[in-house]
Amino acid sequence: MRHLIPSWVRVPVIFFFIFGLTEYFIDSGDKPAFVEYPIVLGFLLLVLLIIIAIEAIISALENVMLQKLDDEAKARFLEDRNKTYQFMWLKNTYIKLLGQKPIEEEGEIILDHNYDGIKELDNNLPPWWLYAFYISIIFSVVYLLRYHVFNGPTQIDELETELAEARTAIEAYKKTAKDLVDVNTVTLLTDASDLSAGKTVFETNCVACHMADGGGGIGPNLTDTYWILGGGIKNVFKTISEGGRSGKGMIAWKQQLKPIEMAQVASYVLSFQGTTPANPKAPEGDIWEAETQE
């Protein structure tokens, strides 16, 4: 097969195959393994030099053999060799992987066991099975060293890392998906765009009871420090969402307004604090101290 694929293709392929295996088994974070562990680079270079040396030795021996042949024999040899590698290498590889004796040589491995004329052959284990077994041993040794000697990341570590990344992704998503806000996650909005949107919602739905300046009418005064159901963004959001006191309070707006709209109008309502309305209604409820807010 080496004559079908040139060495300048075979050598890099083998090298990068080994390189890929080392990268897979050695967790070096964002850096390549040979940067984090220089000994890995040394090992890879050593393997590359060995491969190149083997290629050079085989080529040199072949050239020496060809020099001993005359032109006709040399041409015949090269032609036969190419045909052999083109059509026989796959069959030969298959036979070698099976590791069985040819039929004419089976007499050498017949055991003395004889059951009703059925005889047993003492074939060796197939090379493909042995190679797979040896590879599994090598893998187990590498795994043992990587995860139990050099304390590589365990499945628990990987789970915690993935959970942390998931939490970060959720928080990032929440920043752009404001409609996910609820009474537990709502925060006071201070952006001019949010307050402007809250003002629009307030003027559309709330001025009839609270007046445009928040001084109060049917509903309570929103400019003082007294609150019937509690102040602060969470309490105001909950009151807007769930409604006021049963039977005589404000209706629940959660069916008419989106969560982000309730957060915006709640933030706008709190912007009335400390202002002076034209006709303020008398205080109702209890004083809400800022330090008591959650």
Characterise the protein shown here.
The chain is mainly α and 294 residues long. It folds into 3 domains: 1-87, no CATH class; 105-151, no CATH class; 192-292, Cytochrome Bc1 Complex, Chain D, domain 2 (Orthogonal Bundle). It is 56% helix and 5% strand. The protein contains 11 helices and 4 strands. The chain has helices at 7-25, 33-36, 38-67, 71-87, 89-98, 127-149, 155-176, 192-205, 207-210, 232-242, 259-270, and strands at 110-115, 118-121, 226-227, 286-287. The strands form 2 sheets. It has a two-stranded antiparallel sheet. A hairpin with a 2-residue loop joins strand 1 and strand 2. Helix 1 runs antiparallel to helix 3 and helix 8 (192-205) crosses helix 11 (259-270). The longest helix has 30 residues, at 38-67. The protein is elongated, with a radius of gyration of 41 Å. 11% of the residues are buried.
Order of helices and strands: HHHHHEEHHHHEHHE
Gross morphology: elongated
Q: Any idea what the CATH architecture of the largest domain is? A: Orthogonal Bundle
Name the beta content range.
Answer: under 5%
Report the span from N to C terminus: 75 Å
The CATH homologous superfamily of the largest domain corresponds to: Cytochrome c-like domain
Strand order of the largest sheet: 1-2
Gyration radius, in Å: 41 Å
The number of helical runs is 11
Low-confidence region ranges: none
CATH topology of the largest domain: Cytochrome Bc1 Complex, Chain D, domain 2
Structurally, how many domains make up the residues?
Answer: 3
Taking the sheet with the most strands, its summary is: 2 strands, antiparallel
Class by SSE composition: mainly alpha
